[in-house]
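Can anyone check this?
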Amino acid sequence: MAKMKKKTWKEMPPAARVGTVLIGIAQMALMVAAQRDISKRPAELINGPKAAWRMAALINFIGPMGYFIFGRKRSVTGK
């Protein structure tokens, strides 16, 4: 199997560059939203330690999405 050479930024087509930038923006937005929510949410409303979720939220898309799905406790009133 032949090794594929990684393309540099200049070698990438414009559509690939735009896609890369958009994915990066989405990743940063998710991370910032998760970090902000962790900061503002009381520890009683978070499953597990805040510090662990802060570290997990730094892992690409998986961390922030994991926090929003599994890290926040659901309120009883539905709010």
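Reply from J.R.: I decoded it. The CA atoms of residues 47 and 70 lie 7 Å apart.
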